[in-house]
């Protein structure tokens, strides 16, 4: 992994480089003492990973990330202060390591990065789905004595209920005997997004997006054409990364 170290303390950079010698997959391609040095370096070299200090002269680590115009690399924050942990994960940091850095803790953080990379590569290799259902497809739903013939675009939310899935459309919430995983395989992934283990949301029905705990997001769905709507659904931290990639230009 092509890596840049950003820290205003030269001794801290040298110590981290020494520790990283034990990890052959980490290829250090540059180092910077502040955001002004780091930003053009990141945009030119396009690293996979940053080890980023938070408190630095000029822009801090968070302001550095906000200043990046293009793809933001994976980030491991390295800092002597623990009060920034929540904010760090709002920026989708993969880890937050306290100084002085312990080798075992560093190994854990790098393993997390490698797992994220493997999952991303697996997603990239997935084959297009046959028989995919999109917003214009009509589906027949039967719940007890009630039946509906509903256009999928009207379904704003799919909610797992054990062996069943509850569909939210208009003011109706029928359940079908199907797992959320099997349903996800049939739905158009450009429109229907797996927010967490219990919910799939229709991206066209998102009304508001807010930062949430541990780097996740909280989305509020639009009111239904008939009925209340307005459900609030948490997008997990891992899915929030995919969500931001999907929604970016």
Automatic annotation (TrEMBL):
Keyword tags: Phosphoprotein
Molecular function via GO: DNA binding; phosphorelay response regulator activity
In-chain residues carrying the UniProt-annotated modification 4-aspartylphosphate: 53
Residue ranges that the Swiss-Prot or TrEMBL entry lists as coiled coil: none
Signal peptide limits: none
Record domain Response regulatory: where: 2-114
TM region(s), chain numbering: none
Residue ranges constituting the HTH LytTR-type domain according to the UniProt record: 141-249
Keyword set includes Nucleotide-binding: no
Alphabetical list of PROSITE patterns matching this protein: HTH_LYTTR (PS50930), RESPONSE_REGULATORY (PS50110)
The keyword Phosphoprotein is assigned to this record: yes
Pfam families associated with the record: LytTR, Response_reg
InterPro entries found in the cross-reference section: CheY-like_superfamily, LytR-like, LytTR_DNA-bd_dom, Sig_transdc_resp-reg_receiver
PANTHER family: STAGE 0 SPORULATION PROTEIN A HOMOLOG, TRANSCRIPTIONAL REGULATOR-RELATED
Protein name: Transcriptional regulator
């Amino acid at each position: 992994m092509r890596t840049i170290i950003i820290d205003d303390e030269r001794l801290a950079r040298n110590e981290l480089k020494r520790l990283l010698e034990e990890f052959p997959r980490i290829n250090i391609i540059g180092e910077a003492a502040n955001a002004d040095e780091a930003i053009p370096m990141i945009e030119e070299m396009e690293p996979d990973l940053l080890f980023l200090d938070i408190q630095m002269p000029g822009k801090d680590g968070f302001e550095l990330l906000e200043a990046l115009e293009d793809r933001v690399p994976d980030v491991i924050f390295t800092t002597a202060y623990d009060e920034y942990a929540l904010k760090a994960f709002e920026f989708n940091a993969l880890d937050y390591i306290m100084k002085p850095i312990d080798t075992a803790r560093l190994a854990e953080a790098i393993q997390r990065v490698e797992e994220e990379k493997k999952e991303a590569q697996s997603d990239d290799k997935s084959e297009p789905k046959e028989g995919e259902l999109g917003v214009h497809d009509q589906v027949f739903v039967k719940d007890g004595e009630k039946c509906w013939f509903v256009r999928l675009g009207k379904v704003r939310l799919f909610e797992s209920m054990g062996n069943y899935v509850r569909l939210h459309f208009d003011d109706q919430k029928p359940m079908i005997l199907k797992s959320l995983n099997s349903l996800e395989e049939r739905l158009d992934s450009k429109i229907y997004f797996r927010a967490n283990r219990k919910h799939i949301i229709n991206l066209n029905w998102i009304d508001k997006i807010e930062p949430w705990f541990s780097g996740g997001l909280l989305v509020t769905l639009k009111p239904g054409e008939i009925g209340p709507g307005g459900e609030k659904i948490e997008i997990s931290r891992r899915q929030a990364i995919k969500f931001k990639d999907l929604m970016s230009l």
